[in-house]
Amino acid sequence: MTPISSSGKTLKSPAPAPVPAYIDAVAGGFAGFAVRILTAPLDLIKIRLQLEKGDVLGTSIRTVKSVYRNEGPLGFFKGNIAATYLWITYAAVQFSVYTRMATYLNDASPENYFPYVRMSPTAVAFVAGASAGLTATICTYPFDYMRTAFAANQGEKAQSVVGFVGQTFKSKGLGGFYAGVVPAIASIVPLMGLNFMAYEMMLQTMKERGMEKSSTMAGLVGAVSGGVSKFAVYPMDTVKKRLQGQQFGMVALNPGSRYTGAIDCGLRIVREEGPKTLYRGLAPTLIKSMAGTGLTFAFFNATKGFLVEAHNEYLGQ
């Protein structure tokens, strides 16, 4: 009901308080934590398949049987501590940067930022998503490197995070934690740009058809956008994993035949193992990506809604 003053004039309802920046970070971090726990086995299978080198293509079922037989049920959660740190911090940074960047681009004035011109909603979503992915990747990449190292380790003895960090820094320096960062950035920028753009486009289409936004809707739309965007950039993810695996000796290469960079790695994979190798591990990855992205958006939407409501109640709104 619209409030009316004693003189009969219509009063404007007070504008809702701006959402504090920490809410996006907390909601994103919680979403990342929850999704990581649910999708950890699929992540490990994908990494193992990407690191395999040879003429015989590994299958997801064969890899599952091998992990279970040789490493037991807990083997599917190798590297889970580093991966959990990765997902929590990545999602927290990603959603915080995306919200702030999208707000800035929507509010920016063309007159003040020449030759800036006002962007369409889809362009805003792509640029904001790409910026969020780039920032989150640079900030959290060492966790991704550790996650890959632990997941690729097929031995029975697991190294501690502290021990691994100390050993890597001593032998390779700070740069050792950023092995494969170039293809990672090259894949994450279009991946997250397409992800958020597809998400916002589908969400807007559903709203125009009279469907209210909910956590379930966010999850379904996020699953589709996550699967499509991941498929589009998957070869670069394989190159990144190969370069990471080479750094800590998990990729079998003859002496003197190390990959010299992302381009060399990609070309040699195609030439020596065939183009299909770039898509090795695609099946578990698409399942994980669709489930992970869908659940991430669903958890984020639900958690943010809860925190915003609690914040407004605290302010008495």
From TrEMBL:
Highest taxon in the source lineage: Eukaryota
Bilayer disposition of the protein: Multi-pass membrane protein
Pfam family, one: Mito_carr
Residue ranges of the TM segments: 20-39, 123-143, 177-199
Ranges of the Solcar repeats in the UniProt entry: 19-104, 120-205, 213-306
Coiled-coil stretches noted in the UniProt entry, renumbered to this chain: none
GO biological process, one term: transmembrane transport
Alphabetized SUPFAM superfamilies for the sequence: Mitochondrial carrier (SSF103506)
Cellular compartment(s): Membrane
Keywords assigned: Membrane, Repeat, Transmembrane, Transmembrane helix, Transport
Protein family (similarity comment): Belongs to the mitochondrial carrier (TC 2.A.29) family.
Record-given protein name: Mitochondrial carrier
